[in-house]
Amino acid sequence: MLSLEKVKNELEKYNYTYDNDILCGHTKSKIKWVLPTGIVNVLAFEQSTSYLFRFSSSGINLFPIQGDWNIADNLQISWSEINSFKMKNGLLENEMQIETQSMKIEMKINKVVANNSWVKDNINYLKEKNYFYNK
Questions:
Q1: Residue 44 phi, psi dihedral angles, 5° rounding
Q2: Which of 37, 49, 56, 83 is the most exposed place for a label (fewest CB within 10 A)?
Q3: DSSP 8-class letter at 135
Q4: pLDDT digits (tens, 9 = 90+) for 2-12
């Protein structure tokens, strides 16, 4: 289960402290196939991967999640490597797009997570620090 204590403990494994700079989200889901069955269509989506995102003055860290919100790895992208950064505001989720010389990343960032009010607090904190609009 996702909790603030769990996030803090996982970040310590990578020598990061929690500074209200963490958000959670997932890969953008895409439709894999559609099976028309008359009145109802069956849709199959590609499996999405959950992530924690850390925004700082040096860049963005992407932490893929496995199992019970355990961090599996760490990818840091510095602001100097980012050619384009966009955060599109959505009703329940924001869409984050990052482009570097070698890759394009599209992710969904949760605006609200049940029983985790810190997520909304962190979004507001990061907006104040202007990390969403650094590029």
A1: -115, 125
A2: 37
A3: -
A4: 899 999 999 99
